[in-house]
């Protein structure tokens, strides 16, 4: 799957992310190595998450997007200070979202990590 998603592909992920609460919050310390490691661990088991940039953070959506892409994540959407983020889980047993994606679109999602 390329990082340039079609509207239907984005909608697929947004629909599944709608009931999710932000799991990681980026605060005044910004998107540090520790925060990226936490996000990496969470994505390894959940594939699709929401991340919140708190009001006291100096981070912008663009800097957060660049940092997330550095760990192989795809930023599906950024609305306000909330980002929807996806990455294929490293272990097949955690690939619920990517399996549903395959069933819907008939194509797999590239697994880089």
UniProtKB/TrEMBL annotation:
Protein known as: Ribosome assembly RNA-binding protein YhbY
Species whose genome carries this gene: Bavariicoccus seileri
Keywords annotated in UniProt: RNA-binding
Name of one Pfam family that matches: CRS1_YhbY
Database matches in InterPro entries: RNA-binding_CRM (IPR001890), RNA-binding_domain (IPR051925), RNA-binding_YhbY (IPR017924), YhbY-like_sf (IPR035920)
Record flagged with keyword Glycosyltransferase: no
Gene that this polypeptide is encoded by: yhbY
GO MF: RNA binding
SMART domains: CRS1_YhbY
Domain CRM, residue spans: 3-98
Phylogenetic placement of the source organism: Bacteria, Bacillati, Bacillota, Bacilli, Lactobacillales
């Amino acid at each position: 799957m390329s990082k340039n998603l079609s509207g239907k592909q984005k909608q697929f992920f947004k629909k599944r992310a709608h009931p999710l609460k932000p799991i990681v919050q980026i605060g005044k310390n910004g998107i540090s190595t520790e925060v990226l490691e936490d996000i990496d661990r969470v994505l390894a088991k959940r594939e699709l998450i929401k991340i919140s940039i708190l009001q006291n953070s100096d981070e912008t959506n663009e800097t957060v997007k660049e940092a997330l892409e550095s760990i192989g994540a795809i930023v599906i959407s950024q609305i306000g200070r909330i980002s929807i983020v996806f990455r294929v889980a490293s272990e097949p047993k955690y690939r619920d979202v990517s399996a549903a994606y395959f069933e819907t679109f008939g194509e797999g999602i590239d697994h880089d990590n």
